[in-house]
Write a structure and sequence with these properties.
CATH class: Mainly Alpha
CATH superfamily: MetI-like
CATH architecture: Orthogonal Bundle
Shape: globular
Structural class: mainly alpha
Number of strands: 0
Number of domains: 1
Helix content: over 70%
CATH topology: MetI-like fold
Length: 277
């Protein structure tokens, strides 16, 4: 007769997993209470009746030539807002990331510590980037609309400011997390910071920089639609007007255009990533 030993498997980290699950629930439940999150309102009879009536206006989608022409113009404006805003954001973020880049500091290379003035510049730039990205683009759009009025300019500047802080932060992290031995070797052998960056650091960072910048451009397209609801131009502004008039057919047409726009942006992003790899 053959005796088979019984093997008992036990997760060695079960107590840690349970502890963190309890902590998560202990934080989540009070947060839901403070946020007054109540899913039951979705099933309220009056709310369901209102939503059903509004959804019923979605068909048929609006398709008149005059309306489609207006949507096409608003779509191009949305793309323009996102593109110009992202370019301006890169113009803000790229120099800021270079100024705050510790790997290009000659004083840190020779002494192991950045000079006081260089450290002060670095932390000042980081503080500015934190401030820019701390204010959501919708809030920037609200403030700029008050200053320059309704229109596309507010959307462009709002994206440029918020995304400038985001791009600067991520660019800096990419620069400092990449292997910097080639850059330091160039600096030790007499190359300047500009040469060390373009010949040592940039070639290794370029695919990741491109990938993240294109991703932010995708996000800017979505954000430009949202900012249209506060008067910053583009497709969102037209959608907000249609929703005010309860023109469901116009809303569903613009939603379909928006979904197609995001899909196109995703395909462009995919091709650019392949090109830089």
């Amino acid at each position: 007769m053959r005796v088979t030993d019984t093997v008992t498997y036990k997760d060695p980290a079960w107590h840690t997993r349970i502890t963190w699950t309890v902590v998560f629930l202990a934080v989540l439940l009070p947060a839901g209470w403070l946020a007054e999150f109540n899913p039951a309102v979705l099933w309220d009879e009056a709310n369901l009746r209102t939503v059903g009536h509004f959804l019923g206006t979605f068909l048929p989608p609006a398709h008149s030539l005059e309306f489609l022409n207006m949507v096409a113009i608003a779509t191009w404006k949305t793309i323009a807002i996102a593109t110009v805003g992202t370019v301006l954001a890169a113009i803000i973020g790229f120099p800021a990331a270079l100024a705050a880049n510790r790997a290009l500091s000659l004083s840190a290379l020779t002494t192991g510590r950045m000079a006081p003035w260089a450290a002060a510049v670095r932390w000042t730039v980081r503080a500015v980037l934190i401030f820019l990205r701390s204010v959501p683009e919708v809030v920037w759009a609200l403030l700029i609309v008050r200053a320059v009025g309704l229109g596309d300019t507010a959307g462009v500047l709002a994206i440029a400011l918020t995304y400038g802080g985001m791009l600067g932060k991520v660019y800096l992290e990419i620069f400092e997390s990449t292997d910097v031995e080639a850059t330091r070797s160039l600096l030790r052998n007499g190359a300047g910071r500009t040469q060390g960056f373009f010949y040592g650091m940039l070639p290794a960072c370029l695919p990741e920089l491109t990938s993240y910048t294109v991703y932010r451009w995708e996000c800017a397209i979505r954000a430009s639609v949202i900012m249209g609801f506060v008067g910053a131009g583009g497709l969102g502004q037209q959608m907000e007007l249609s929703m005010r008039m309860l023109a469901g057919g116009e809303v569903i047409t613009m939603l379909a255009v928006f979904v197609g726009l995001v899909w196109i942006a995703d395909q462009v992003s995919l091709q650019l990533r392949k090109w830089t790899e």
